[in-house]
Amino acid sequence: MERPGLKYLLDTAPWANDVLTPEIVPARIENLLDNLEHKGLCSISLLECAILHRRGRLLVNAALEDFFKRGLAADIEVLELTPEIAAVSNDLPEDFSGDPFDRVIAATAKVMNLTLITCDAAIRDARFCKVEFYPFKPSRLKA
Prior knowledge:
Distance between the termini: 44 Å
Shape: globular
Mean pLDDT: 90
Low-confidence stretches: 139-143
CATH class: Alpha Beta
Number of helices: 7
Radius of gyration: 15 Å
Structural class: alpha/beta
CATH architecture: 3-Layer(aba) Sandwich
Strand order of the largest sheet: 3-2-1-4-5
């Protein structure tokens, strides 16, 4: 189920970080993102962001729709949930997070043979899909 030219999938946090606070994204990851023709984002990440925003855990300085418009630049391909991805989300290791967003995102990377850019150490440690990891460090924010 590979898509030509698409090699990377953004986890929700790295995508939101790159849109809202690019200064906390390490230079290595920022260079990688800048040099990709296009990258994938699971449609379920949009729902995750909407929920985080409603709960006050994702602060945007505009309407949520404006955040989505800005974040869904021309080089972002939104990938929809498919029956195969839904089924594979049940094949994750037993100790994998029960978070449905993490499960669908990891399954999408696996099914589509994409490298997942994530700052989630549990996803990295599960070794279920290919991962490009960076630790999330809010301390990178400049006051």
